[in-house]
Amino acid sequence: MPGVKASEALRREQILKSAHEVALRKGIDGVTVRAVAARARVSHGLVLFHFTRKEQLVSALLDRVLASTLSIRVPDDVALMRDPGERLVALLRQEVHRLSRDAAQVRLFLEYWALGTRQKAVGEKISAELRSYREVLRLLAADTLLTGPTRWVGVTPEGLAAVGASLIHGCALQAMIDPAHFDVEEHLMAVEGLLGPSPPRSQTRSTGRRGAAGSMLGSVETGAAALRRGQPKLVQ
User: Fold this and answer.
1) CATH code matching the domain that covers 2-61, chosen among 3.60.140.10, 3.40.50.1010, 2.60.120.320, 1.10.10.60
2) Could you report the per-residue pLDDT of 49-94, keeping only the tens digit for each?
3) Element (H, E) at 91
4) CB 23 within 8 Å of CB 32
């Protein structure tokens, strides 16, 4: 019956939500049938009806974890920005703040990453989601590079996307490691100071690979400054 099926689906979702809450507090090892049943306020038998063993529950929970960490959405106000560089930096800023605020989610994701080194199916699912996440950044990066070809000599969309992903995930990792002292704005200010000023464009064009690297660093520095100010501007 449709009503019964709907009720079962809702109950399954309730159990998964409770399992997620348990995992955020106790990690994957803490996701036991007893703990999840207590959190969901259901019987052990009902949990086992939907998930016949703990491993099945942990596997199903992975989708929720990936949705919380690697589901990237471009907001309407960002999508409407005319300048591709502004869109890219605005999205980077969004993701840096989003993931840095939720250290427990990042820690749980890393637990699943470690699990994926032992369980092929888990590893493949995580890798696929990481590729999808990076692809969103790559598309924005490709548009950005087209607006300033002389500034981005030697930089590929994949390379720029990798820098963006490194900034996002690096901030999230640092926030997880040292939440009491990590501050997003201070981190971005430090990145700006470490990279220093970008070389003149004429130097970039004449120094080949070294100039390309300088352009890359200078562009990231510009982006870091824009992120810190809250006024994204990658391409001038």
Assistant:
1) 1.10.10.60
2) 999 988 999 999 999 999 999 998 898 999 999 999 899 989 998 9
3) helix 84-100
4) no
